[in-house]
Amino acid sequence: MTDLFTGNSKPGLTRELIEALLPMFEEASAGAIAVDRQSYITWINNSYSQLLGLGNPEQVIGKPVRQVIPHTRMPEVVETGKPLLLDIMEHNQQQLVVTRMPYYDDQGAIEGAVAFVLYDDLQPLTPLVSKYRRLHRDLAAARKALARKARGTRYSLADFVGASPEALEVKRRARLAAGRDMPVLLLGETGTGKEVLAQAIHSASARAENPFVGVNVAAVPENLLEAEFFGVAPGAYTGADRRTREGKFQLANGGTLFLDEVGDMPLPLQAKLLRVLQEGEIEPLGSNKVSHVDIRLIAATSRNLETMIAEGSFRSDLYYRLNVVEIGIPPLRERLADLGVLCEALLGEICEGQDLRGEITDAGVAALGGYDWPGNIRELRNVLERALTMSEDGDLLDADAIFKVLPRTSGATESRAPVRAVRPLAQIVADAEAEAIEEALVACRGNRTRAARALGISRSVLYEKLSRMS
Ligand SMILES: Nc1ncnc2c1ncn2[C@@H]1O[C@H](COP(=O)(O)OP(=O)(O)OP(=O)(O)O)[C@@H](O)[C@H]1O
């Protein structure tokens, strides 16, 4: 072993301290090294030179440390005077956990640095490292989710679950749409995932860092739609706010505006929307100033716009403006092959954060396949949620558990099915009662006391009815 500190400067306090601590560190560590002010090696112990595969330690004294240990950060410590107390360094495909500290002369000037290899084998640290990696992954996912939420989106393309040819085609077109800054028209029945897809397209587009603003045209009273869309100038009408109220177009500026149920838009507003799309300018209510907006429009509807055009209730020129990229989302009954993966994803979502581990048997999935799903994936989610709430045998849903909660008929089958046989009134009443109880339990997340209160019956009566139902 060579002498620790070469050079002729007088030993100072810090240096003394390091010298005092060195034997202890040296013994506890898998190797130790010191460099001078120019990052030239002044000392290295035997164990470190063996670890580095150097043979004779003397031959590296006086060499620049980077020449011997290419990935070392000792020069940085000497330059900045800041210790690097914990670092992982690669050397010859080994990962070394190292600590590095500067040391000073009497006048307080940096004289060099020392480093110790704390571990030359990460094996004992595996639980710690994997915990760190897991936390890091969780943190990254949470940051991403938070950022998405801040921008108004919750979904990415991976959230559009499905592996059937129909689902893959939807995803392929969505990816295509994401790459082009053009209007998109999503066509599909209620609950097929139009909003999921709109958010996913936004998240995968160049506008992803900008806002995603959604507005359900059918949910806004007709007389408020214009203000909702284009905003209101201060004092635009009696009782109007003194401040400017921004409309959805301004809020979505730079990002994506999602118009859900665009088929429900009244004709006068359709004309205004068309103008905005043609000119890229909006005029808030009560203002005579126009302002430029830059948005990508994604519209969706469950209605047949072509029939509406023929009937005169939807403008054909607007239709062609909106329908640059059209994506038809098939109803669930046309992609029953996806039932299994959808159940898995939805049960995972439902059980998240709860002390539940929902699973479904193959027979359970087959039972779901016999239904025609007028409410599509939203309805599937409700059925699974209800089945879990009602399930008596833990969290495994079999065919029986599904049949118990599956609606007996759906709107779609009802309209196609022949008139049903007349049934005894008592049975109809019992069925209606069972359905009301299931709904109350779902609404109260399985809390029977609250469900009983909501139904206006006592807990004991609810229990009695439940036992008769099962
Ligand atoms: N492909 C899918 N994968 C996973 N979940 C989905 C999918 N499609 C829809 N969902 C879920 O179904 C529910 C309804 O989806 P969404 O609101 O996007 O449907 P929608 O077509 O916009 O319905 P509506 O026309 O009634 O507004 C949501 O909870 C959503 O998470």
TrEMBL record:
Record key words, sorted: ATP-binding, DNA-binding, Kinase, Nucleotide-binding, Transcription, Transcription regulation, Transferase
UniProt keyword Phosphoprotein, yes or no: no
Domain Sigma-54 factor interaction: 160-389
CDD domains hit by this protein: AAA, PAS
GO BP field: regulation of DNA-templated transcription
UniProt xrefs under SMART domains: AAA, PAS
One Gene Ontology term of the molecular function aspect: kinase activity
PANTHER family per record: TRANSCRIPTIONAL REGULATORY PROTEIN
Protein name according to UniProt: Transcriptional regulator with PAS, ATPase and Fis domain
